[in-house]
Amino acid sequence: MLVTGGAGFIGSNLIQRLVRQNTNLRATVHKKPLQVRSPEVEYVEADLTNPGDCRKALEGIDYVFMCAANTSGAGMIASDPTIHVTPNVIMNSLMLEAAHKEGVKKFIWISSSVVYSPSGDHPVKEDEFLAEDPYDSYFASGWMKRYTEVLCHLYSEKLKVRMPTVVLRPSNLYGPFDKFESQTSHVTAALVKKVVERQDPIVVWGDGKDVRDLLYIDDFIDAMCLAAEKIDHFDPINVASGEGHSVDEVLHTLLEIEGYTNAKVAFDRTKPSMIPVRLIDPTKAMSTLGFRAKTSLREGLEKTVEWYKVSRERL
């Protein structure tokens, strides 16, 4: 079994889970240093934008969890909307092609809720995939994800020799091993850092009213393992908690957890605010996978804060 992006947020958490399950495991690493190293894992240095490295990583592999991706936060996306396009299109295309040639039995790929068009406060279902263009702020990354989903469909159902390809569309993930630096982090990790460090004032991008479905990483790993076990064809699935939380609610929950009672909060409306409301419908994951998120927002934030306090010295 192969986990790409073995030093990343999702990859690190998935590796920990698979090691506990005594899985025969290989993981790729590239520029980012490992966040967790397990003696049970075979680590392979690989640049997945290089065809030869893709083939090397896939030798003898039956199952692939494609967790490698070029990601960043709202600030970098706003300054360079194409930042995620080329490297992700190249590595996804090359890995799918190489996995098909190597006879991989199942390829699990992580899409995103950015594939969806604006929907207000309506939780979007999987069949609304191509209703309209993605949000302008996510136009480039949204179409990159859409294109890769089309490739997954191709390899799964449109070729003479088919490779089952599973596509998951998670909501906003957070938890241990996330990116916490301001230039690369998403909103939840950024707020954890600011509250734990007792920043004064705590500067929040936007007006705090943006609403997200936040999913704790352990719950998403549950869904990934269930999908790998139960799904053997192309059938994209939303993975979400089914609840919306405003940025302001997340911030005040963190302040309560940390006992930061006298915090000064400054909302910077000049900073980019990506999507006012983004909710996705997890009904299909419940019926198809038997998946339900187990971790409440408060419990997930408590676990994330605890991990960040212990680990921030090496971040």
CATH class, named Alpha Beta
Unreliably modeled segments: none
**Main sheet summary:** 7 strands, parallel
Radius of gyration: 19 Å
What is the strand content? 15-25%
Mean of residue pLDDT? Answer: 93
Quick one: overall form?
globular
In what order do the strands lie side by side in the largest sheet?
3-2-1-4-5-6-11
**Fraction of residues in H or I helices:** 25-40%
CATH-wise, what's the superfamily?
Answer: NAD(P)-binding Rossmann-like Domain
Distance between the ends: 28 Å
> What name is given to the CATH topology?
Rossmann fold
CATH-level-2 architecture: 3-Layer(aba) Sandwich
| Oligomer description | single chain
Question: Any idea how many domains?
Answer: 1
Order of helices and strands: EHEEHEHHEHEEHEEEHEEHEEHH
Class by SSE composition: alpha/beta
Count of discrete alpha- or pi-helical segments spanning 4 or more residues: 10
Quantity of strands, as a count: 14
How would you characterize this protein structure?
Helix content is 38%, strand content 16%. The chain is α/β, with parallel strands linked by helices. It has one domain: Rossmann fold, CATH 3.40.50. The chain is globular. The mean pLDDT is 93.
